[in-house]
């Protein structure tokens, strides 16, 4: 019959209870005397307890049962040790996952902060461009106003001269005063006009530089994507924060793979003798070119190289 640890525990607990009761009975017998009327009753009670204790200890002392019990206890200890190790492993995994989650959240926060900063910079650049445009519009408005005022002054001078020629009597003092006042106004508004012209030129130069710079970067990104693919474009973007040497090594590898389609310069080769019209170092696309090659199409003309394909100009070297 297999050993049940729970039943064995209850039997052992019962034997301990009987032993404790027997011990208490022996203490009572030590205090009583033989002529005491309760002596015999207590002796009988002690004998009964002793008999019960012996009957309880016999099954507990069975060797086969004790061996099975030891085996079961060993299995239980191993299982508990495994459970403890499993809990520790799960706890370590949870700690690692929590650390990874925190690191990922930190990276996301850094990425969001980076993009937020870029968006803020772009917004500031747009606002600055818009502000400069508004200022340029205002400068042009003030410039036009200064030109109109100077034109009015010129008309006033011409009318004054016509009136002087039509008059029979001259008034030199009034003429001198009028001429001085007009000279002062013309000088003042000419200075304003010159300031507006200088400010307009400065703002136009700044706007042109900013617009040309943005257009140049956009054009460079488009060509880079066409020449080296989107992976190289993302690598270039990441290269600003990574190792520049690894970046250029990757670009050189991509470029060498792309150069396999470059036509060799062999003036006496059979291909040239066969009537190819492609200049040397022009690019021969693959037989099934991707849509990215479309930007190199030169007016839809064809070249002969094995089979007809579109003609594409070579791009500048790295």
Features:
mainly alpha; two-stranded antiparallel sheet; 3 domains; disordered C terminus; elongated; 318 residues; Programmed cell death protein 7; PDCD7
Structural notes for this entry:
The protein has helices at 5-31, 39-60, 63-166, 172-239, 244-258, 270-273, and strands spanning 302-305, 307-310. Mean pLDDT is 75; it is low at 271-280 and 299-318. It is elongated and about 175 Å long. The longest helix is centred in the middle third of the chain and has 104 residues, at 63-166. The chain folds into 3 domains: 5-107; 119-215; 262-318, no CATH class. The two termini are 87 Å apart. With 318 residues, the protein is mainly α. It has a two-stranded antiparallel ribbon. 75% of the residues lie in helices and 3% in strands. A hairpin with a 1-residue loop joins strand 1 (302-305) and strand 2.
């Amino acid at each position: 019959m297999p050993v049940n640890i729970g039943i064995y525990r209850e039997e052992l607990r019962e034997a301990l209870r009987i032993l404790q009761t027997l011990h208490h009975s022996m203490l009572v017998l030590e205090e009583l005397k033989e002529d005491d009327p309760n002596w015999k009753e207590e002796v009988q009670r002690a004998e009964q307890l002793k008999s019960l204790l012996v009957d309880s200890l016999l099954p507990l002392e069975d060797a086969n049962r004790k061996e099975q019990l030891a085996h079961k206890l060993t299995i239980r200890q191993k299982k508990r040790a495994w459970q403890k190790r499993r809990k520790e492993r799960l706890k370590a995994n949870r700690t690692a996952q929590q650390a990874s989650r925190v690191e990922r959240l930190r990276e996301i926060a850094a990425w969001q902060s980076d993009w937020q900063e870029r968006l803020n910079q772009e917004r500031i650049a747009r606002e600055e461009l818009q502000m400069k445009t508004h200022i340029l519009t205002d400068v042009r408005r003030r410039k036009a106003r200064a030109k109109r005022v100077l034109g009015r002054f010129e008309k006033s001078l011409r009318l004054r001269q016509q009136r002087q020629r039509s008059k029979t009597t001259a008034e030199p003092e009034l003429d001198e005063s009028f001429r001085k006042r007009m000279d002062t106004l013309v000088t003042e508004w000419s200075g304003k006009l010159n300031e507006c012209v200088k400010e307009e030129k400065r703002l136009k130069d700044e706007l042109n530089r900013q617009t040309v710079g943005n257009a140049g970067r956009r054009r460079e990104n488009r060509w880079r994507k066409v020449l080296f693919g989107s992976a190289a474009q993302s690598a270039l973007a990441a290269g600003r924060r990574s190792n520049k040497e690894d970046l250029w090594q990757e670009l050189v590898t991509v470029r060498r793979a792309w150069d396999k389609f470059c036509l060799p310069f062999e003036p006496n080769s059979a291909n040239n003798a066969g009537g190819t019209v492609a200049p040397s170092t022009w690019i021969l696309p693959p037989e099934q070119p991707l849509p990215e090659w479309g930007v190199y199409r030169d007016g839809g003309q064809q070249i002969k190289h094995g089979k007809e394909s579109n003609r594409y100009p070579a791009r500048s070297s790295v």
